[in-house]
């Protein structure tokens, strides 16, 4: 007579051991999925905090900085080329560059007004 309990997996035998490892594998798989979910939540939280820090510090992305630097470089090149054209035209007309008065920049014409100590620029009621 054979022991039907060991074959069915309810006693002490190879069937019971197989189910134990299946259960253990199921628990481990569940734990891994929980850890993966926790990892993605942690990554999202850290990314959010870093983005808030970047905004608070008024940092810019590298691509934006590179684009602004390229615009500045082109403006310098254009300014240099225009200065050379003006010098050539002045030489052609026989105008002495030192004798021509230079136009004053608009920013120097009017001094900036700073708020009095009672005024808070962020509070519209104090500006009245």
Reconstruct the topology from this structure.
Layout: H1 4-8, H2 14-56, H3 62-93, H4 106-109
List keywords for this structure.
single chain; Accessory factor UbiK family protein; disordered N terminus; mainly alpha; 4 helices; 128 residues; 66% helix; rod-shaped
Notes on the structure:
The chain is an all-alpha fold and 128 residues long. It is 66% helix and 0% strand. Among the domains are: 44 residues; 38 residues. The protein is rod-shaped and about 105 Å long.
What spatial form do the alpha-carbon principal axes imply?
rod-shaped
| Largest beta-sheet details | none
CA radius of gyration is: 38 Å
For the secondary structure, the number of strands is: 0
* Derived structural class: mainly alpha
Strand-and-helix sequence, N→C?
Answer: HHHH
End-to-end separation: 103 Å
Proportion in helices: 55-70%
Region (Disordered): 100-128
InterPro entries: UbiK
Biased composition (Basic and acidic residues): 117-128
Organism: Teichococcus wenyumeiae
